[in-house]
Amino acid sequence: MKRMYEFVCNCGQRTETLVDYETNGVKCRCGELAHRVISAPNFNLEGWSGNFPSAWMRFDQKHREKLNAERKANQ
Description:
1 helix; single chain; about 30% helix
């Protein structure tokens, strides 16, 4: 089974690559061996796509209330 891992080379270059679970190193662009490191996953929960709807609805409601208050203040 393949998984996405982050690898760091001795020159400091970071690369994310889809590799087998047992893989501990891959060849870097500079030609040296890059070693697998533990890192935080890189993803974003977006309310408008349906992945995290409740937070987006709260944000949208607060944003609309703020706009309405500004419109009333400017009249």
